[in-house]
Design brief:
Protein name: Gfo/Idh/MocA family oxidoreductase
Structural class: alpha/beta
Number of strands: 15
Mean pLDDT: 93
Helix content: 25-40%
Order of helices and strands: EHEHHEHEHEHEHEEEEEEEEHHE
CATH class of one domain: Alpha Beta
GO molecular function: nucleotide binding
InterPro entries: Gfo/Idh/MocA-like_OxRdtase_N, Gfo/Idh/MocA_Oxidoreductases, GFO_IDH_MocA-like_dom, NAD(P)-bd_dom_sf
Strand content: 25-35%
Strand order of the largest sheet: 13-14-12-11-10-6-9-8-7-15
Number of helices: 9
Length: 322
């Protein structure tokens, strides 16, 4: 088993600690948190070993999970990699693209593996249907959340929208051509609501909306491609594919048939893939362990995390503030 340590024991850090303790692929060695009072409380309440310094935790680990505030990601990640240890780092990978590129390149030089915590890649609804998403040409996403001060150290783009940016980049196999965006600051110093339009060189267009001051939660994505419409509800863990094929000469009496302007008849088929219940954070951690063991590229590599950040920063840079 891989010896795992956690840097940062806030809300998400505690979740990682709990799951690493449960996992059969890791041996949890402990954690480090700069807040000594909070660290002592966690150690007493849960029994996790608290290390006195970041360096001592890294030395005791084979793999380190970085769950600190984003402002500290670069410093922590660099220390982990320079020590020759594998790195799992929560999104966004770093504060700037330059920092992310340095981390990515350093990991390659040190020959260690790195994975970014883009947890929606492991959402069971997306996993059940992602193989059916093929060459989408229009994508629409909505990610709405109630206000939570915990995420406001970064804009809504890096807090929420980056999840959908990563999902879109994972299914659109084409470079980004142009980005336009609008953002509104309501409660925070940075935008709380954002809309972005991303155009790709192959003609695909993605329209993304994210808000962290909504009255209800929503995490949905819709993918439109030739003869198919695919929807994913990340919150409710549901997905559906609606496909259209040329209608047979003698369709079933219950078949749903549409006739287009040219008189061509299409039959509509509904597909609801079976969704396997899972713990997405545990799955992403264990997939990383498997990547380390097999010496293969992780499912969400540092390169992919860097590209998601690059596009997110393009969105921010192109904001037309309202």
């Amino acid at each position: 088993m891989l010896k795992a340590g956690v840097l940062g024991a806030g809300h998400l850090g505690k979740i990682h600690l709990k799951l690493l303790k449960q996992s059969e692929k890791y041996e949890l060695v402990g954690f480090f948190d700069a807040d000594k009072k909070a660290a002592k409380k966690i150690e007493e309440e849960f029994g996790y070993k608290s290390f006195p310094t970041m360096e001592s935790l890294i030395d005791a680990s084979d793999m380190v999970v970085v769950v600190t505030p984003t402002i500290h990601h670069f410093e922590c990640a660099r220390k982990v990699i320079e020590a020759g240890k594998h790195l799992f780092i929560e999104k966004p990978i770093t504060q700037t693209v330059a920092e992310a590129e340095e981390i990515r390149d350093l990991a390659k030089t040190k020959k260690v593996r790195g994975q970014v915590g883009q947890v929606e890649r492991f959402n069971p609804a997306f996993m059940a249907i992602r193989d059916k998403i093929s060459n989408p040409m229009f994508i629409e996403t909505h990610r709405l959340a109630e206000f939570n001060p915990r995420g406001t150290d970064v804009s809504v783009v890096l807090d929420l929208m980056i999840h959908d940016i990563d999902i879109i980049l994972s299914v659109v196999k084409s470079p980004v051509k142009t980005v336009s965006a609008s953002g509104v600051s309501v409660l925070s110093e940075t935008p709380d609501i954002a809309n972005a339009r991303i155009e790709f060189e192959n003609g695909c267009v993605a329209n993304l909306t994210a808000s962290r001051i909504s009255l209800k939660k929503m995490r949905k994505a819709r993918f439109f491609q030739r003869d198919a419409y695919i929807s994913v509800d990340f919150l409710e863990k549901k997905c559906e594919a609606v496909r259209m094929k040329n209608a047979p000469e003698q369709p079933d009496e219950f078949a749903m048939i549409l006739t287009n302007a040219e008189g061509v008849q299409k039959q509509i088929y509904f597909e609801n893939p079976q969704i396997e219940s899972n713990n997405a954070i545990l799955d992403e951690l264990e997939s990383f362990a498997e990547a380390i063991k097999a010496d293969r590229t992780p499912d969400v590599s540092l390169r992919q995390g860097t590209e998601a950040l690059r596009v997110a920063m393009l969105v921010i840079e192109n904001f037309k503030q309202i």
